[in-house]
What we know:
The complex is a heterodimer. Chain A is mostly helical. Chain A folds into 2 domains: about 1-115 and about 210-235, no CATH class; about 130-205, no CATH class. Chain A is built from 8 helices and 2 strands, in the order αααββααααα. A two-stranded antiparallel sheet of chain A has the order 1-2. In chain A, strand 1 (about 75-80) and strand 2 form a beta hairpin. Chain A is flat, with a radius of gyration of 20 Å. The longest helix of chain B is centred in the middle third of the chain and has 16 residues, at about 180-195. Chain B has a 6-stranded mixed sheet with strand order 5-6-7-3-8-9, sandwiched between helices. Chain B has a 6-stranded mixed sheet with strand order 15-16-17-12-18-19, with helices on both faces. Chain B is α/β, with parallel strands linked by helices. In chain B, helix 5 crosses helix 6 and helix 7 (about 150-160) packs parallel to helix 8. Chain B folds into 2 domains: about 5-245, 3-Layer(aba) Sandwich (Rossmann fold), CATH 3.40.50; about 265-335 and about 405-480, Rossmann fold. Chain B is globular, with a radius of gyration of 24 Å. The chains are: A mainly alpha, B alpha/beta. At the A-B interface, helix 5, helix 6 and helix 7 of A face helix 4 and helix 5 of B.
Amino acid sequence: xxxxxxxxxxxxxxxxxxxxxxxxxxxxxxxxxxxxxxxxxxxxxxxxxxxxxxxxxxxxxxxxxxxxxxxxxxxxxxxxxxxxxxxxxxxxxxxxxxxxxxxxxxxxxxxxxxxxxxxxxxxxxxxxxxxxxxxxxxxxxxxxxxxxxxxxxxxxxxxxxxxxxxxxxxxxxxxxxxxxxxxxxxxxxxxxxxxxxxxxxxxxxxxxxxxxxxxxxxxxxxxxxxxxxxxxxxxx
Amino acid sequence: xxxxxxxxxxxxxxxxxxxxxxxxxxxxxxxxxxxxxxxxxxxxxxxxxxxxxxxxxxxxxxxxxxxxxxxxxxxxxxxxxxxxxxxxxxxxxxxxxxxxxxxxxxxxxxxxxxxxxxxxxxxxxxxxxxxxxxxxxxxxxxxxxxxxxxxxxxxxxxxxxxxxxxxxxxxxxxxxxxxxxxxxxxxxxxxxxxxxxxxxxxxxxxxxxxxxxxxxxxxxxxxxxxxxxxxxxxxxxxxxxxxxxxxxxxxxxxxxxxxxxxxxxxxxxxxxxxxxxxxxxxxxxxxxxxxxxxxxxxxxxxxxxxxxxxxxxxxxxxxxxxxxxxxxxxxxxxxxxxxxxxxxxxxxxxxxxxxxxxxxxxxxxxxxxxxxxxxxxxxxxxxxxxxxxxxxxxxxxxxxxxxxxxxxxxxxxxxxxxxxxxxxxxxxxxxxxxxxxxxxxxxxxxxxxxxxxxxxxxxxxxxxxxxxxxxxxxxxxxxxxxxxxxxxx
Lengths: 236, 489
């Protein structure tokens, strides 16, 4: 089966992200998060393991946040000195499912799109501004570099006696600080280079998006994720 | 403006933001087939000049430029001229990883042509032709991360010149290149000049770019302090080396091997690699207390894999590693055989130097004063983010981190990359001092200066095998592969 059109994949990803913000009901969130996460991990895990790592870190961060700010209601679990209440679990689940849906959609896009087509297809078919399409294409270029940075940083942290798995805020800071600082420097120079290669002169050539069987299936599945919660009477 | 003069500039002053001038009173011109080299120590204003004369500084980086610049009839300092400048220049920056923006070689080269509005069939034709010319056609749809360092560098050239601009601007093209890659860069520059194009090179490893007739402007403190023409006299080379420009042949100093020292690290029959992929096999090496030993070899030969295996970051596929006479598992070596990566930034964990020192003190139990004693510039930089320190300071700090952890063995991966001669010699001094305190160093390098001035022995890793090599021969080999000879250089 051929790869779906980059534009349709982009629309799909964007729509799922919007739904993740709109839906509040746990069943609606489950409907968009689990299938997209499963499909995303299947399609995009090899290309973007880092997103899965970041997702797990984010969910853990969400839990810590919820534990300190929304830990009220009935007691759900007691783990030594930690008393986890309904509010913390509900908040973590709600935000975690949203993150899962967004990460799943991102992984579907990364796994399904041909990176070198992204900038051309999104510009030509969706008429997106070149600054957005280039940022997307460059992000995909950065993923393997971030993966390499991540593995180097993790080894350096181990040499310096930090935990193998970063789960406390302080640990996460020592991981993210070098990761972001290095990426920032890289982005500045990449920006200079592309400008010197005429990026500001770039004029896209427009064309209509192609819609075949694969795209039709994808759009139908999207429609189902919009309609099903309404038909089932789940609150948004 | 005469079209035959490809570049002419006269900059009275230029700086970043609303800050003071970084460069003052710099001027030059360059004609067809000409070569102009801007040489000088790190921080002397060479790259700022490049950013100023191309209009990047005032049009992109919110900087300011006072003066004039003309590139092939265009004034890049004006917004309209800056829009047109990509049609007149090809720019290649220091680090290919910071320059390559697209996922495959084909899309990378085509990106330039797409930006400049070429029709699709021409884009296809020119892209394939350029990739063919630079030996990348077979890999045109490979992911750029699967290319070797040399291939990435060639790709940066291909994407910079596919539109056949009259002027090529190169910012430290030898950085992160092995001698084999440097030979390719030199060949490319020669070829480009033969075709009547102008070439401007910013470099502190000047000796790789000393073709007869090449004009050299020497920068110091943001000004041009001297103008020279190759070939250089001994006096000129001495002057350049004194200010930190690598202009003369590498020296081979007598590096005293430790006397009566005990063995600290030994590898026996080591096989290294990733899973099924064997990178090198039957590796036997040793390191004595207080010794510095070099490992040379091409990019991709497996030097970094070897260092990471010795440091415990990778499990050996076979063989054994002994530390202080005892056979060790990988995890037992982590932190005791301390690996300092080529990019020292990976090691830092705090938002300021002060915080970094506190972290080291917290983890090692060493007093802050003890640590700062080894950082002579600590006072002036304590509030600075470690990521914003100069290149030399970051390298320095990374070695001090390793030393503070009390590791008997420190593994340095390309420690001289990006350092000018002055900074290199300071770093060599630091390594010498720590060797005197009993620390041993194993250093992966392409740099003949490291082999000749810092190490007492050398190994070469070639075609999956490691063997000891005479130090003089190692320096000679690195020079030869870069297209120089010790005598000529």
